Protein: Thiamine-phosphate synthase
Amino acid sequence: MISKLQYITQGKTAQDHLDHIQTACASGAEWVQLRLKGFDPKTILETAKKARELTAHYQTRLIINDYYRVAKEVNADGVHLGKKDDCPLKVRAYLGKFYAIGGTANTLEECKVLLDKKVDYIGLGPFRFTETKKNLSPVLGTSGYKKLLEELQTETPIIAIGGITLDDVAEIVQTGIYGVAASGAITKDFTSIPVFHKILSSPSTQEQVYKMDDK
Structure:
């Protein structure tokens, strides 16, 4: 099951990432993506091992960003692949069927390629400008999500990502998006996690209107 709220770690040091994972899990996070950029392979592996221990304690799913071999070594729940990472089909052959595999997309064509390669979910963005990621793709906004979702017509979960704050979630949900991933907004206030969950799990306005008309 793909979580409707995905927390993506950030921090200047490996310990920052681990501290944030601890707090996120204690605050109710069900899905954490360990995203380590600019660290050496040994640090990444050791941090992933510790992250697995933390998430296992809280029964939180752990996804490793980019490093699918590390994901398998630490027995994580899955991997998230960037555009320049290995092919999802190659990664699936390596990991097997029990690992979740997600991919990053910005355009309709990129989504179709990932769907053809049988990813379990797509991280679609960015929603708005974010400093978390370098070489940012064109910003989509809610209108971009709505258009892409109408064209895709897929049951594969599409996760909105990129500069998303708590105030954005209700509007994003109206596009038909499956869920959201957040990094900075949650890191700044881990107590927002239950509020994210509440908004994401509540019926959309469209569903409410449909039920009213149905009566």
The beta strands are 5-8, 31-34, 61-65, 78-81, 100-105, 121-124, 158-160, 179-182.
